Amino acid sequence: MSDSPPASVLLPTVRWTDACREVADQLDPDDELLVLCDDETDPVAARRDELPPDVRLVLAGEPVGCSGKANAIAAGMRAAEHDRLVWTDDDFHHPPEWLATLQADYGRHGPVTELPFFVGRDALSVLLEPLYAGGGTLGVYANDKVWGGAVLFERDDLDEAAFLRDLERTVSDDGLLSEYLDVTPLRRARTVEIGGTVRKSLERHVRFTQIVFRHEPLISAFSTVVALVVTALALLFPVPVVVLATLLHALLYAAFDVRRPTFLLAYPAGLAQVPLTAYGLARRTFVWGGRRYRWRSKYDVEVVERSGAE
């Protein structure tokens, strides 16, 4: 049992997964795990009577003007009993001391977040691992951004009322939280499997591209210019660029204690960045979590349809 204040852990999911069980097993007696789903039709709702006593099911309802994830987090924050809040996801392994370690990290640093390392399950997402290592892992760490898969903060650390108001009219929960919360990213990466099909990977890449564009337009523009310059150099001087890109990504992987051979794909991944960025910005809609969204501006979101495809 830790000496930290009790925490409410918010976990959006439609199914009871290994991650749910892992987090539930780590709760102190005064902690709670809130499993956030849409409605009674979600498979996890059928397990309501089987949930441990310190686990509660929260039905967020259908999102209107925001993403399903943002809607679920907003409902969870309102339902949570405690001032200390933890956000997490159901798609990565939570080791036995995960929650206690985050609690201790807050005592040293204040609001803290871990980092994602996205691991592909199809050809496209495997190819893009070096790009996501640079943007999704190093980018979060170096720019003091939030990863919604593992972040701990207290209500007084931000303007909660304003944050919830904005959360319910946007797409990205952690993109928005990064604007409201001063957070310390920890150099601790969690492996998150993504993709499964090329279509799923394309939809995810569109969402990632538009999150950066909506929340950090200057960074988005700068990154695009850099990618254009690097692509030109890669085509003009392929051998030195191959060597340099591979070496830099090998060092990046090592810095975050990731043992994956995909750093060797840094050169072809870099060549793919410009066309994929253009594709991500040109797309008018994208699918996330079974819903198709049209994201016109940061606070202008339309749920176009509920779809079975990711």
TrEMBL record:
For this protein, the record's Pfam families field holds: Glyco_transf_21
Protein location: Membrane
Q: InterPro entries under this entry?
A: Ceramide_glucosylTrfase, Nucleotide-diphossugar_trans
- State the superkingdom: Archaea
Could you list the residue ranges that cross the membrane? 218-251, 263-282
What UniProt keywords are attached to this protein's entry? Glycosyltransferase, Membrane, Transferase, Transmembrane, Transmembrane helix
* Enzyme class name: transferase
Metabolic or biological pathway: Sphingolipid metabolism; Lipid metabolism; sphingolipid metabolism
List the record's Gene Ontology CC terms alphabetically: membrane
Q: What is its EC number?
A: 2.4.-.-
Q: Which GO terms describe its molecular function?
A: ceramide glucosyltransferase activity
Q: How does it sit in the membrane?
A: Multi-pass membrane protein
Q: What is this protein called?
A: Glycosyltransferase
Organism of provenance: Halobium salinum
